[in-house]
Write the structure tokens for this entry.
Amino acid sequence: MNTLLHTALTLSARSVPVLPLRAGKVPFGNCPACRDNACGGRPNMKTPGACQCPRVCHGWAAAATDPAVLTGHPWASVWEQAQAVAYHPGGAGLTVVDLDDPQAVAWAHQTLPATRTVPTTRGEHWVYLGSIRSANSVRPGVDIKSLMSYARWLGPGTGTMTELPDTVRALAVKEPSPARPAPHIAVPASAGGGECPHRMPAYLDRGIAMAEQRISEATCGVHATVYRTFLAVLSAHGRCGCLTDTHITRLFAAAQTKGESARHCTDAWTNALTRLGL
């Protein structure tokens, strides 16, 4: 049996949801629509496969404990190509504090209660009992991986696992960074010029405002909501040339206020353009 699959089955028998990773610590997309993140989305709690794929096929939501799932289609053809095993900490009732460099490890030793530790390439994973929302860059070199996230399996580690401390819980509710300006992203204009041909100009302003509201009201699956909103805006206005940098900046600012990074905004916009053939 493939070594990684053996590891995955061993973990799944302990009720730890697992999934295979390809090169670059990236989950496999297991249907044509999702390969190489062409769908532009991520799974979320309420709608697994929020990229609109008809089934849970990639990302943390695809992590499974059922041996029939792990060894059946589409996983069966994936394990020989896989580079690592990942697991969904939140699904196992765990939280991983990912310490990415020696300075972050030193901070943890000074600040956090001792728990199980797992060496990583550049630092350590500190694993606690209890699950919370995941958050990246909560302080220099520190990410929190729990619900709606995955962590690479690097071995059982050493030490006794302890309860999730309030210090880590507080880090997970850190306010998002201020929005950055959107980069210039060209949208092809129609031969008719820059005026929206199907409605009055006020229609575009109303559409942008509604898109901002849709993003700001997202309570989970923010990345998927951002992508679908960008797709809807481009479907309506991407071919008529009426979108300007000001409109795009407003959309990016709404997304970043919800915690999306500038890179993820750019990826979502680019993927929406590709989806529509623009």
Observations:
- Residues 201-216 form the longest helix (16 residues).
- The two ends are 45 Å apart (CA to CA).
